[in-house]
Amino acid sequence: MRAMEYRGPYKVAVYEKDIPKIEHPNDAIVRVTLAAICGSDLHLYHGLMPDTRVGMTFGHEFIGVVEEVGSSVQNLKRGDRVMVPFNVYCGSCYFCARGLYSNCHNVNPNATAVGGIYGYSHTCGGYDGGQAEFVRVPFADVGPSIIPEGIEDEDALLMTDALSTGYFGAQLGDISEGDTVVVFGAGPVGLFAARSSWLMGAGRVIVIDHLEYRLEKARTFAHAETYNFAEYDDIVVEMKRATDYLGADVVIDAVGAEADGNFTQHVTATKFKLQGGSPIALNWAIDSVRKGGTVSVMGAYGPMFSAVKFGDAMNKGLTLRMNQAPVKRQWPRLFEHIKSGYFKPNDIVTHRIPLEHIAEGYHMFSAKLDGCIKPVIVPNAG
């Protein structure tokens, strides 16, 4: 089969690999019909995630058709159209029993924090991802769901991570009616978090980024006020001005490890790998929220130290809430929102790229070329 392979920072290409096989009776093999490149994939692409091994296939957002199932699989059969959450999880451990699918205790021998994630380094379990023609799906009776009638393929694809994560980020904000919500980052997760904030009762939603084409999308898709932080000496001071000098009720960090805005922090994190991620957006969030407010962290960070203003968070009495999204927990509500017309997830898709051109897709997405917000990968475009 053809599959994307990682060959080192900024080096990916399509190679021939063996079609994955059933390794456990609970496995399924899925023929991928659509995949996507996520902003989190760029952390791998840039060499920021520990133990990202040469030869790994990325891709934690994918849907497809069941090609083969193991002898114990009861809920799926060959030919089923399925959407697969980015979490690999067992469904029965202490954490899964409490809905914490992203913290499954049985799928990742390399960490005590995160569970398993498709295509996201051996730090997250070493599972090959879906930027390929086929992918092995463990615990096939637990993770994948048959795509419901009325849900289009690209909408289902975006529910495997970006939409579910953005919605979860707004949930973690514990938004009350009339709250002012600030979202740092106008990528796909930030856009979905901003749009979701309205559904949870926000009275005002502000999105902050430094790329004008993404801010324009925040205005049209998420109906948000926007600020370009590059146009202000201090975006935190500007947020205080915009909120009667109190700060926002809720701030969502949808940026994560590669935040711009402070040269020293960015370089020490992204170039010298001295931090588990540039903490700029998270520190701005801590400074921009009001005393007693809530900070929701959806941006991905590595397991190393980061210079976060924890003392400020403590002294302001903040509530900090964060996790990798337990994706499947969000799906019942999101199915209803989509069917009711509150969301059309694929409105954020800007590019559809054949698998054989995935290296160009990564470069375009990484370098923010051609107004790229969300690239979808088509394994069999011909």
Walk me through the topology.
Layout: E1 2-6, E2 12-16, E3 28-36, H1 39-45, E4 62-69, E5 81-84, E6 87-88, E7 116-117, E8 134-137, E9 145-146, H2 153-159, H3 162-172, E10 180-184, H4 188-199, E11 204-209, H5 212-221, E12 225-228, H6 235-242, E13 248-253, H7 263-270, H8 280-288, E14 289-297, H9 310-315, E15 319-322, H10 327-339, E16 351-354, H11 358-366, E17 375-378
Parallel strand pairs: 10-11, 10-13, 11-12, 13-14, 14-15, 16-17
Antiparallel strand pairs: 1-2, 3-4, 3-8, 3-17, 4-5, 5-9, 6-7
Helix pairs in contact: 3-4, 3-10, 6-8
Write up this protein.
It is a single chain. With 382 residues, this protein is of the alpha/beta class. The chain has two domains: 2-161 and 326-378, Quinone Oxidoreductase, Chain A, domain 1; 166-322, Rossmann fold. It is built from eleven helices and 17 strands. The strands form four sheets. Strands 3, 4, 5, 8, 9, 16 and 17 form a seven-stranded mixed β-sheet that branches. It has a six-stranded parallel β-sheet with strand order 12-11-10-13-14-15, with helices on both faces. Helix 3 (162-172) packs across helix 4. The mean pLDDT is 93.
